[in-house]
Design goal:
Radius of gyration of chain A: 23 Å
Helix content of chain B: 25-40%
Largest sheet of chain B: 7 strands, mixed
Number of strands of chain B: 19
Oligomer: heterodimer
Number of helices of chain A: 18
Helix content of chain A: 25-40%
Low-confidence stretches of chain A: 473-482
Radius of gyration of chain B: 25 Å
Largest sheet of chain A: 5 strands, mixed
Distance between the termini of chain B: 67 Å
Shape of chain B: globular
Strand order of the largest sheet of chain B: 2-1-9-8-7-10-11
Shape of chain A: globular
Low-confidence stretches of chain B: none
Strand content of chain A: 15-25%
Number of strands of chain A: 15
Largest interface: A-B, 49 and 65 residues
Mean pLDDT of chain A: 87
CATH superfamily of the largest domain in chain B: Aldehyde Dehydrogenase, Chain A, domain 1
Structural class of chain A: alpha/beta
CATH topology of the largest domain in chain B: Aldehyde Dehydrogenase, Chain A, domain 1
Structural class of chain B: alpha/beta
Chain lengths: ~475, ~500
Amino acid sequence: MATTAPPRDNTVEREAERWMNDPYEHFGYHNTRIHSLPREEVEAVQLAAMNLRLEERRQQVQMLAKLADAQGIDRVGRLDDLAPLLLPHDIYKSYPTSLLAKQQFAKLNTWLTKLTRYSPEEVDVSECDSIDSWLTKLRDETPLDVGASSGSSGTCSFYPKSKRDYFLSMMGMRVQLAQKFGEDPKPGDIEDKIHAIIPLYKDGHASMGAFGKYSCEVFAKGDPAYWHYCFDFKLSQDLMWLAARLRAAAAKGDVSKVDVPPSLLARRGEWEAAQQAMPDQQLAFVNRMVKELAGERVFVMSTSNLLYAVAKRGLEEGISGVFAPDSVFMGGGGAKGVPLPDDLEEVVCKFFNTDRMISSYGMTEMNSFSVQCEHDRYHVLPWVTIFLLDLETGQPLPRSGKQNGRASFFDMTADSCWGGLVTGDVITVDWDHRCECGRSSLAIDKKINRVSEIQGGDDKITCAATPGAQAEAMDFLTGLGG
Amino acid sequence: MMAKRPISYAVLRGKVVETDLIEFGGRGGDITFLAPDPHKIADQIPLASPRLMEDMYDLSIDQILDYLAELGTRLELRNNAYLQEALEYSYDTAPSTKPIMDGFYHDLPFMFDKERIRRMVDFNIGIDHLEGWVEQQLNGCTVGIRAYGSRQLHIVAGNGPVLGALTIIRGAVTRGDMIVKVPSNDPFTTGAIARTMVDMAPDHPVTRHLAVAYWRGGDEALESKLYQPHNIEKICAWGGFASVKHVTKYIQPGIELISLDPKRSASIVGPEALESEEAMVDVGRRIAADFATGNQVACSASRLVYVMCGTDDEAVEKLKQLGRKTYEAMLALPDVISTKPKRYDPDLKRQVDALRLSDDWYTVIGGQDNEGAVLVSHTSDRVEFWEYLADRTINIIPVDTLEEVLDVVDAYTQTVGIWPENLWDVVRHKGALHGGQRFVELGYGFNGAGLVGPQDGIEPMRRIVKWIVSEKPGPEKVPLWGDSAKDVKMLA
C-alpha cells in the first residue's frame, strides 16, 4: 500500500519568490533590515531562487537553455554549481556588427529574443530607420526597455532589460541612499517626493539617459515638478554609436572608414557641437538648481567632477550648505584618465551640506546596485549572489577568506533576462570579514579594476597588436590619455 | 628543479655583470628573475663619447662579417652553456612552448651565416656606402655619401628570441654602438649571446660596442638619465603604445625615434579555394602555416582570413568545410613549428565558448581542449573579439567583394597572405594604399626571404645609420666672392 509522502517544506522557496518579485516591498523598504540578514539564511534563499529561476528561465531564454543543455545542468546543489551557467557580458554584443550598419532590426530582434523571456521578434520593426526608433518601438510595444551601451571598440551592446528591471534598480537606489543605516526609515524616506536633480538627459536608452526617466518615477513619485534634468531631450543612441565608431576609425588611421549609415554620419556636426556645449550647460543647470531648490531635500546623481566644479565656485562666492541635510549625492568616476581632485569630498560636502558623497557599483546588466558604506566598501544586496572567478581557470574561488577574482553575479530579481553574469571587472571580497559599518551583507573592496588592466604582465614587449595597445592609443587620440 | 634562480645578466661593453642582483617580474603569475640593479650600472651603459666609435672604422665589413660568422659557430646550442641556461629559463618567460623555443635556439647559428648577412646588408644599405664615400657629380659638385654608425638604443620585443640576435647583427654591420634593453618576456637570450661574444673576443670593437641590460620599462630615474642626446642618437622601439609612450617623452632634437608599432596580419583568399576537395586541403594547409606557426605569437601571424566566396548558404557550408580542413592542417603541423599553446588565454576561451551559443552566425571548430580553434563566420562580419585572436585561433570570414576585405586592411596590418595568383596584383596595390605593409603568397608568411629589408613600411637598417654627406666644388663652380658673386643663385 502506497503511503503519502510527508508535505514538502517549501518555506524557503516561498521566501525566495518574494525576494525575486519585489524584495523592497517584502522588507518594507527597510534598508537596515535588508543589510542585516544572516548569511546562512541569505544563501539558503539564494540557492532556492537559483533553482526556481533556472527551471523557469531555461524554458524562456534560449541562450540559457543552450548553455544549460551543453553543461548538462538541471539543478544546483550549491551556490558555486551555478558558475558554469553565468553568461559572459560579451554575449550582449554577440550579434554580427553589420546588422546594425545595415539597419537589419528584424534580425537584431531575433537575436535579442534569445536573451530575454519577452518576445521582441513579434514587434514589426520594418519601418525603423535608426537605433533610437527601433528601441523606442520595442519600449512602446513590449515590457522591454533595452539598455544600450557602446564600448571603446565601437561595438554597441544591447541588454534586453524590462521597465520592471529599471524600476527595481531605481527603487534599490532610493532605499539604500535615502535612509541612514542602523535606523528605521523615516516616513518621508519612502513616501515623500524627493527632488531628483539629473545634470544629464531627460531620457535615453543608455543608462545615463534612462536613469533620468526612472528617477522621476521613483524619487519624484512621477511629479514633473520634482524632476529636474539638464537636457530636455533624449540622449540619442545613434549618435553615441556614431561617436564610438568615429573614435575607432580615427585610432585605425582612416576616418573615412566609418561603417554607419550615411544619414547618421551627416549628424556628426550635431554631436560635436552638443559635446562642446555640454559642460557649460551642465554647470549653469546645477547652479540654477542650487538657487531654486535651496533648503529642499534633493537626490543628485552626477559625475564627481561636475559636482566639484559647482561646489568649488559656490564656496569661492561664499555660498555653502545649500540643500537640506538629508539630501543624497551620488558621484561617479567620470571619464577614464581624468583625475579626481584631492579635496573633492571636502569641497562637495561643505558646499552641498552633506556628510559624504556616495558612490555605487553596478552595471546595465544588473538590477541591483551596491552602495558604498561609511567604510568605503560596496555592500551587495542579499538577492545578489557573488561569484569570484579565478582569472586563469574561470573556476569559482572559495567563498571564504580574502579573495580577488573576476566579478560575476546572479541577480535573482532579473525580470527579463537570466540574471547570471560574468563581468569584465576584477574585485576583492573578504568573505569572513564583518564590515565595521555594521552591515552583515557581503562587501566588495573599494579598488575595482578591469580584467584587461590586470593582464598582460609587466614590461612584456611584443610586435603583435593587442586590444589594450589600441585602446590606449585611442584614449590618447581622443585626448583622454595622460 | 633548478637550483639557481634565473639571472638576466648585464653584459656591458665586454664585461659581464652579475652583482648587486635585484628581483624583477612576478606580476600576474609570471616568474621572477634577478638582474643587476640598473641604477648601479647606469653609468656604464652608454658609450662615454662619440669619439669612441672610431675603433669600428679600423674594421672592414669583411672583418665584421667574419666576427659574426665565428660567433654563429659558437652559438650552437649543444656546445654553448650560456644558451642552454638561457633556453632553460626562457621556457617559463616565453609565450611559446618548449618545442618551438628549442627550434628557435637550434636555428640561431644559421642567422649568422656570412653570405646571408652580406646579402642583407647590400640589399638594405649597399656595402659600398658602409665601406667608404660613394661619390658622384651633382650640380657642379662632387657629392659623397657615407653611412655612419650611430649610438643607438634598442627596446626589443620578446615574443620571439631571434629579435635580440637580429638587433646585434643589424647594429654590428652598420658599425653602430648598441644598447639593448631586453624585455621581461625574453630577458635571457640576448644576454647569453653577448656573454658568448665576451668569451670569444672581449676586446673586439663589436663586443665593446654592445651593452645588454634589463630595467623595467618606464623606470624614470634611469631613463631620464640615459635617454639624452649626449648618450644616444637613435631609439629603436618595438611594441605597443605603453612601451613606446615611456620613450616619447624623451624624444627631443638630437634623438630620433624609430618605432616598430604593434601589428596584426590577415589573409585574402579567392573563391577558387572552395572549388574542390583538393583545393580546400591545399588552402587549409596554407592558412594553417600562416596562422599557427610559432603558436601565433608573432605580428606576422594571420588572425583573419577573408574568403571571397559570397555569403549565401551554400558558400557558407563550403566555408565550414574549409574551416575543418584548416583545423586538421593546424593539428598536423610538426611540433617545432606549432604545438598546443602553452596557456590558452582564458578571456579568449570565454569568448570562444560564448560564440558557440551563437550558432546561427558562427561555427566553432575545435577549441574545447585549449588546442586552438577555427571560427567560421556565416556573415561578412569578423567576430566581435577579433582583436583578441591568439593562441592558434583564427576567424574565417566570407565576403562578397574585395572592397569589403580592403576596408579592414589598415595601418595596423602588417602581412597580408594572398591566394590565388589572380588576386596578387590588385591586392598588393590596393592593400598597400589601405595601409598593408607586406604581401606574401598564402602559406609563406613565415617561410620567405626573412627580415631582409623593409619592415612595417619603414627600413630600420637605413634608419639606424647616419647618412653623412660631403660636397666639394667642381672647377666650374663660381665662388661667393669676386665680380660674379652677385649672379650666384643659392638654391636649397
